[in-house]
UniProtKB/TrEMBL annotation:
SUPFAM superfamilies: Mss4-like. Residues 4-118 form the CENP-V/GFA domain. Signal peptide: none annotated. It comes from Candidatus Muproteobacteria bacterium RIFCSPHIGHO2_01_FULL_65_16. Keywords: Metal-binding, Zinc. Coiled coil: none annotated. Belongs to the Gfa family. One of its GO terms (molecular function) is metal ion binding. This is CENP-V/GFA domain-containing protein.
Length: 143
């Protein structure tokens, strides 16, 4: 399958997502919570895909937990961009990538679906992420 690459503005956080499905079949979800809206973020994932994350300087990556505190948005402290979100569920790392930080990828606006998960309990959110987020995630830090 075709890989998608992206990252933060300064390059400290880089990601490479290789979905198991064709790109045209992947969801594009715009979370309407205040945090994601302020970042202009919209996400994709494929539970059968693979995500590789490379971090240049780990001390320049902030993890901002809010709400149910069940996810770890990765925010670059150098440039302020949030390229992905990770979640630790039952000893495993899951992730979604922020398509607004993808390189050379244009998503037609009509493909982006607004989603609101405010009605879900923390347990429901964790179960949904385990079903729908990228389940093969590797994170490498170089400093």
């Amino acid at each position: 399958m075709t890989a998608i690459e992206g990252g933060c503005h300064c390059g400290n956080i880089r990601w490479r997502f290789t979905p198991a499905r064709p790109l045209a079949e992947l969801p594009a979800r715009r979370c309407t919570c205040a945090f994601c809206a302020k970042h202009g973020a919209f996400y994709t994932s494929d539970p059968g895909g693979r995500l590789s994350v490379e971090i240049g300087k780990a001390d320049e990556v902030g993890v901002y937990r809010f709400g149910t505190r069940t996810t770890e948005p990765q925010v670059c402290r150098r440039c302020g961009v949030m390229p992905l979100i990770l979640a630790h569920i039952e000893g495993r790392v899951y992730g979604v990538v922020n398509l607004a930080t993808a390189e050379d990828l244009a998503i037609p606006p009509e493909r982006i679906q607004n989603v609101n998960f405010e009605h879900q309990t923390a347990e429901e959110r964790i179960a949904r992420r385990a079903r729908t987020w990228i389940a093969q995630v590797s994170v490498t830090s170089h400093g």
